[in-house]
Each structure stands twice: as structure tokens, then as C-alpha cells.
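Dear support,

I submitted the protein below through the web form. The confirmation email said the job was done, but the results page showed an empty box. After a refresh the structure appeared. I'm attaching both so you can tell me whether what I see now is the final result or a partial one.
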Amino acid sequence: MELRQFEYFVAVVEEASFTKAAARVHVAQPGVSAQIRRLEREFGHELLDRSGRTVQLTDVGTAVLPYARAALAAVEGARLAVDDLAGLTRGQVTFGTVASSSSLALPELLARFHERYPSVDMALSEGNSDQLAEAIRAGRIDVAVIGLAGEPPGDLDIQVIADELLVGAVGHDHGLAEHQEVSVEEIRDHTLICLPPGTGLRTAVEAAWAAAGARPRIAFEASDPGVLAQLAARGLGLAILPQPFIRSHARRLHTVTIASPHLRGRLALAWRSTGPISPAARAFIAYARESLADLGPGSPDARSDA
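What the results page shows now:
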């Protein structure tokens, strides 16, 4: 029984696919399959049900899985302990971010950290807030900038770095261009332009409309706030956007304040509150917290989630 067999087994379970697991562990698929077959022979039972469209755990596999994860975590913990004692900051940091965080100057943050710790490899991924939070929980990424709507997730440590009003934006020929402020009830049936599900902004919009006893009529979705602004400027509907974002599109858009306590967007730095964290990840989290703290909730330079 070898540690790599446990590694391959856990990868197949989490990816629900031998092909995806093989890509994740950088081994050819037949090699992954062969090692898991060897592991199953040592246990004398099949761990995986391969009969369906996706790979599923058998009852025995379900019983083995937590021990396989514990074994991998123990080895990783031992490595981290040795690195800590040796005073080393090396390895890799995987950082995630929502698409609308461009005003946070994250490329500069990553570049400055790399200058300070050149032996640390950096990886950057993008997703919506729900995807990034789940990736942190699963250990696929170390830290991320996510959007918050409502209470923050209790199983993650967070630092709020932006807290902004979400507003409506329409083209100057739109009927709402004559208004400065409206209630959700007044616009509940208007065509909306919004970010996709899983984003903090979308969750806030759905909460505001639900409080008014309605469901938002979302005709256009895009993950880039810039695209939302362009669609609104063309008269295709009412875009919901972070207030700071509107400032750079003021000539093309009219801003409408929407009276609702739900329409606030927050960005937060998030990381795991439990489990092993590498020295490199700890160093990056500390550096990012210090650097991004200068924005602070409500800072005019901070942009809310999307």
C-alpha cells in the first residue's frame, strides 16, 4: 500500500473521473487506473463503482476515503512542520479571484510578493464567489478574493476589503434615466442585466427582489461588469453594478439609486480556517491582508463583488 495510491484514489473521487484525476496528478490515465486496481486488490474489495457515467464510491470506498485523506494530510503536515522549523518559505500558492476585482491591482500584488519570495511559485485562477469558496474548502486553492452577500461563510476566515453600494445603470434614453432613486417595487418588472448565479452581486439582487415579493427578470448575464455596462448603454435594460464601477462609465450611463438594504456588495479575502496551510500560503495571506487592508470597507478605491 503506497501513498500515491491514496493520492490517486482521492483525486478520482473528487474529480468523479479517471481522466480528470490523471490530469490533476500529472500521470497517464492507465497508470492511475492500475494503481487503484492494486489498492483494491490489497483491500480485497472494489473501492469505486465504474459502471455509471461518473465514478462513484462503493460502500467500502466510502469507509476508506476519510483514512486516505487523513494519511495524505498527515504527510503534508509533516512536510509543513519541517519547513517551519527550517524557516523556509517555498512551494506554491494558488490564488483565486472574482472577475470584477480589477480595481484591486491584484497583478501588482502578485508581482510584489514574487519579488519578496522568488522561490514561491504562483498560480492564479478565476471563478465566481461560490466556486472559489468551495475550492478553498477542498484545498484546491489557498486564498481568494470573493464576493459576500449576507453573512460571510462560517467555515472560512475572511477579511472584508470593500463594501460598496450596488446601483442601477441605464442608458440616457431609457425611461428610468429621468429618475434619481427608485424602490425595488417600482422596478420589479423591469428587464435586468446582471452577473451570473454564484456571484455576490447576483445573490444580493435576488435577495432584494425576494424581499419585494418578486423574482428578478434577468434577460442578459455576463461575468464581466464592463459587458453589463455596454449592454445597459445600448438601452437593453437596467444593469445592477457596483457604484465605483459606474464612475468610469458616467458619460454613457445614468445612475439610479435603488432603495434596498440588500443591495450592498462586499469583497473579502478568504482562506481556510482549519487544516494545514503551507508556509508559502501563510506568507502570502499575511502579505495580501496587509496590502489590501489599505483599501478597507468603503474605500473609494475599492470595488464590490461581482
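Response: this is the final, complete result; the empty box was a page-load delay. The two ends are 46 Å apart (CA to CA).
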